[in-house]
Design brief:
By secondary structure, the chain is of the alpha/beta class. It has one domain: 3-Layer(aba) Sandwich (Rossmann fold). It starts with a strand and ends in a 5-residue tail after the last helix. The strands form two sheets. The protein has a five-stranded parallel β-sheet with strand order 2-7-1-8-9, with helices on both faces. Strands 4-3-6-5 form a four-stranded mixed β-sheet. The chain is globular, with a radius of gyration of 16 Å. It comes from Pseudomonas lutea. Pathway: Metabolic intermediate biosynthesis; 5-phospho-alpha-D-ribose 1-diphosphate biosynthesis; 5-phospho-alpha-D-ribose 1-diphosphate from D-ribose 5-phosphate (route II): step 3/3. It catalyses: alpha-D-ribose 1,5-bisphosphate + ATP = 5-phospho-alpha-D-ribose 1-diphosphate + ADP.
């Protein structure tokens, strides 16, 4: 039996890393593997359990075929290790922190994957982005507008999309994630 790929997406600031950290133990207890991404950003700045590498090292890994999926976004390279293919073949469900912009390529490679969209109320997202202090107020507003447009298009294009609102307590979002995965026979 082949495992299922669960592709978690959402805007920056939606709490994907926090959700993965909070759900890690429950997912592991169900046999679901959470992938550690490779990112061209310092280990201290990743904000997630990621493997930080230089651009040169990333490009070498890419040339060696080390990634099942990889993309470039927001000035950084991201890679999902090719080991996920073995885990899926062994029957493990695999959850990755993916990219909304790379969704078509991921679907082409894994047509039966489940997509989980983490959403957040725009006011809550604005506050989280402001608190991070990585972008100007103008950049944040541009990001919020782009997110709203992208989310509307995604919801219209994908009726099987699992949508989780992470505007409230994280424990509630973890609970809803686990309920959706149980209904979808993923991580069971």
């Amino acid at each position: 039996m082949t495992g299922r790929l669960i592709y978690l997406i959402g805007p920056s600031g939606s709490g994907k890393d926090s959700l993965l950290d909070a759900a890690r133990e429950a997912l592991a207890a169900r046999g679901c593997r959470i992938v550690r991404r490779v990112i061209t950003r310092s280990a201290e700045a990743t904000g997630e359990a990621a493997q930080a590498v230089s651009v040169e090292r990333f490009e070498a890994l890419q040339a060696e075929g080390a990634f099942a999926l990889d993309w470039f976004a927001n000035g950084l390279h991201y890679g999902i290790p090719v080991e996920i293919d073995q885990w899926l073949a062994e029957g493990h469900d695999v959850l990755i922190n993916g990219s909304r912009g790379h969704l078509p390529q991921a679907r082409a490679r894994y047509p039966h994957m489940s997509v989980v969209l983490l959403t957040v109320d725009q006011a809550v997202l604005r506050e989280r982005l402001q608190r991070r202090a990585r972008e100007s107020a103008e950049d944040i507003e541009t990001r919020l507008a782009r997110n709203a447009q992208f989310t509307q298009g995604l919801l219209a294009d994908d009726p099987e999309l699992i949508v989780l609102d992470n505007s409230g307590p994280l424990e509630q979002t973890v609970g809803r994630l686990m309920q959706h995965l149980e209904r979808a026979d993923a991580c069971a």
